[in-house]
Design goal:
The complex is a heterodimer of chains A (223) and B (314). Chain A is of the alpha/beta class and 223 residues long. In chain A, 28% of the residues lie in helices and 22% in strands. Chain A folds into two domains: 116 residues, 3-Layer(aba) Sandwich (Rossmann fold), CATH 3.40.50; 70 residues, no CATH class. Chain A has a four-stranded parallel β-sheet, with helices on both faces. Chain A has a three-stranded antiparallel β-sheet with strand order 1-6-7. In chain A, strands 8-9 form a two-stranded antiparallel sheet. The longest helix of chain A has 17 residues. Chain B is an alpha/beta fold and 314 residues long. In chain B, helix 4 crosses helix 5 and helix 9 runs antiparallel to helix 10. Chain B is globular and about 60 Å long. The chains are: A alpha/beta (223), B alpha/beta (314). The interface between A and B is medium-sized, with 32 and 36 residues.
């Protein structure tokens, strides 16, 4: 899922201060799964914002709405009625949702309430970890199902750097596994350690953001 | 024997001498005098001098500029190059520039992550964006391409070729230990001519790792120079053992430093014993010496190890 976290409350307050009535818009898909922008979080954040604004002497009304997906136009449309009465929107969906609202409801300003930071899996309750970096050139077939692009701090393709800790964790974060340790372990278990001795050539990054903003046209799907 | 590039380091190794390299960290400022001062202290005690590339992700004078200053001072540099800060375009551009300036040795490294920031002693730039377009092994292959095929990574030719004696690092005792020999082999297959290792304190385990490399025929294909860092205190050794990945310090060495009435003297004694120990290992072609921010200790150490004067090989 796309992972996001609330921005600091002070930053949100700064953005809302000039407004009179604000729609706090949640999204019931990825950001609900990562407990940042679903209906529950929308209804939790709204009173926090009201209290903080009131404390600073502002009388700003905050209304809420959570739709199924802020990244699909037909769901976005459901917000139209509520947006009609506000002078700003704060979206706590990922950056895709924020931009969809900004496009649909222009010129109403839309502020992000969260920072979108990774493509993750929920490892267990309350723990999310990166799994994909959308690099556009998948290597999982050569790395025994572990992604070194998203999960190695240096995105190394030819094995671990010298920074693997004694306990197999990454030098950058002691709570994160050195993904190359995991790759080597799995390769060894499958009796295929030798396959990791192949030199991996420089990667073609052009099918990711590095090749310019992505835009895909599938003629077969266009009528 | 046909020389690849004829750098002093290559000539010394090719002539069968036990090589000595030492590390020179560039200053955190623009004063060439800082580099020259270190050059004056270290002139003549090693065959080549590693110039670090923003080590621990702290901004320092560029490796390429400090290397050139060393060269002007009559010391042969090993320009270190990390993959953290430059993409393949900038790395190759700097390699061509380094070649134009007469730099002939390059050590290819992944580089410390930008979150390292000198282990928290300095601010550093933890909010920096890293690059890692290519990794250290791919960089080795890129340098080899510029030298042997006169070809850039993208396939465009250059003229003339850019001659570099290519180095790489090895962390033999880092986990996963079994893979470390394979990774060394990858570096040598990619084109590494010499290998400088992470600091060695545990001779027994290091010797076992070298034996594995020797069994794979690797010690004949690249010159392995074990890294030896002069210990300064028991605290430093405890810190390295606990916090520097791949560094294993046996308890008895830490205890010796703890019991020493003069830790500096004891540290030099330990370094000396380590040099003697690695020198006796089959497959070892030299040493890479570091006395972090205490380069002044190195001349006496190298002399005491019987490694002076350094050979002149033409």
């Amino acid at each position: 899922m796309i992972f996001a976290e609330w921005k600091p409350l002070d930053e949100l307050i700064d953005k809302l201060e000039p407004h009179k009535k604000v729609l706090l818009a949640g999204c019931a898909t990825c950001v609900a799964e990562c407990a940042a922008g679903g209906e529950k979080e929308t209804e939790t954040l709204a009173p926090l914002l009201r209290m903080a604004l009131k404390k600073k002497g502002h009388s700003i009304e905050i209304v809420t709405a959570t739709i199924e997906r802020q990244c699909e136009w037909e769901f976005v449309e459901e917000l139209a009625e509520k947006v009609a009465g506000v002078d700003a929107i704060m979206s706590i969906a990922c950056g895709i949702g924020v931009q969809a609202l900004a496009e649909r409801f222009d010129p109403v300003p839309v502020y992000p309430g969260v920072n979108t930071s990774a493509l993750t899996i929920r490892e267990e309750a309350g723990i999310w970890a990166a799994r994909c970096a959308a690099c556009g050139d998948c290597v999982l077939g050569e790395t025994f199902g572990y992604c070194p692009i998203a999960r190695c701090a240096k995105s190394l393709l030819n094995g671990p750097c010298g920074g693997t800790r004694k306990n197999g964790k990454c030098e950058v974060n002691e709570d994160v596994d050195c993904v190359w340790s995991l790759i080597v372990e799995r390769a060894e278990r499958r009796g295929r350690l030798e396959s990791l001795s192949i030199l991996r050539k420089p990667k073609d990054w052009s099918n990711s953001r590095h090749g310019g903003p992505k835009r895909v046209i599938r003629e077969d799907l266009r009528q | 024997m046909k020389m690849l590039v004829g750098s002093n380091l290559e000539r010394v190794l090719a002539a069968g001498h036990f090589a000595v390299t030492a590390e020179v960290g560039p200053p955190r400022g623009p004063d060439p005098g800082d580099v020259k001062k270190k050059a004056r202290i270290l002139r003549g005690v090693a065959d080549a001098y590693n110039v670090t590339d923003n080590q621990t992700a702290v901004v320092r004078m560029s490796s390429i500029a400090a290397s050139k200053i060393l060269l002007q001072e009559g010391l042969e540099p090993v320009m270190q190059m990390v993959c953290r800060d430059r993409n393949r375009i900038a790395l190759q551009s700097d390699l061509l520039g380094a070649s134009a300036l007469g730099l002939r040795n390059v050590l290819c490294l992944s580089g410390d992550h930008q979150s390292a920031g000198a282990g928290g002693k300095l601010k550093g730039h933890p909010g920096a964006k890293n690059v890692y377009d290519i990794d250290s092994i791919q960089l080795i292959a890129v340098v080899k391409g510029l030298r042997d095929q006169a070809m850039q990574e993208g396939g465009d030719s250059i003229s003339p070729a850019a001659p570099f004696f290519i180095g790489a690092a090895w962390t033999p005792l880092g986990p996963p230990e079994k893979f470390r020999t394979i990774r060394l082999a990858k570096k040598i297959n990619a084109g590494a001519n010499f290998i400088q290792t992470q600091a060695v304190y545990d001779i027994k385990r290091f010797a076992e790792a070298v034996r594995r490399a020797e069994d794979m025929g690797l010690t004949d294909r690249a010159a392995i120079l074990p890294g030896i860092i002069v210990p300064r205190s028991a605290g430093m050794l405890r810190y390295m053992n606990a916090s520097v990945p791949g560094v294993e310090v046996p308890d008895e060495i830490i205890q010796r430093m703890k019991d020493a009435s003069d830790p500096q003297e004891e540290g030099i004694k330990i370094a000396l014993e380590l040099i003697v120990a690695v020198k006796s290992l089959s497959g070892i072609k030299g040493v890479h010496l570091q006395a972090i921010e205490a380069e002044g200790l190195l001349p006496d150490l190298i002399k005491a190890a019987g490694l002076l004067p350094r050979p002149h090989v033409y």
